[in-house]
Design goal:
F1FO ATP Synthase, 2 helices, mainly alpha, 78 residues
Length: 78
């Protein structure tokens, strides 16, 4: 029973990566749309989009880290 709950917890932690991918896709879609409307602002928009993607990517890394901790630290106790 506990092993199943640990697996569910790790799976939910990995879901952070899936949600991050959706968020990053939205960021870049909006950036491309904004560049299409205002080509002069391409440099500023590109740097802001890359910075935003780097910040949101940390959420996916933290989710992976938490899932590994759940599996190996809590999973070893079962």
């Amino acid at each position: 029973m506990e092993l199943g709950l640990i697996a569910i917890g790790a799976g939910l932690a990995v879901m952070a990566g899936a949600m991050t991918a959706i968020g990053e896709g939205n960021v870049f879609a909006r950036a491309v749309e904004a560049i299409g409307k205002n080509p002069e602002a391409e440099g500023k928009l590109r740097s802001m989009a890359i910075t935003g993607a780097a910040i949101t990517e940390t959420v996916a890394i933290y989710g992976l880290l938490i899932s590994l901790l759940i599996i190996f630290v809590l999973g070893g106790r079962v």
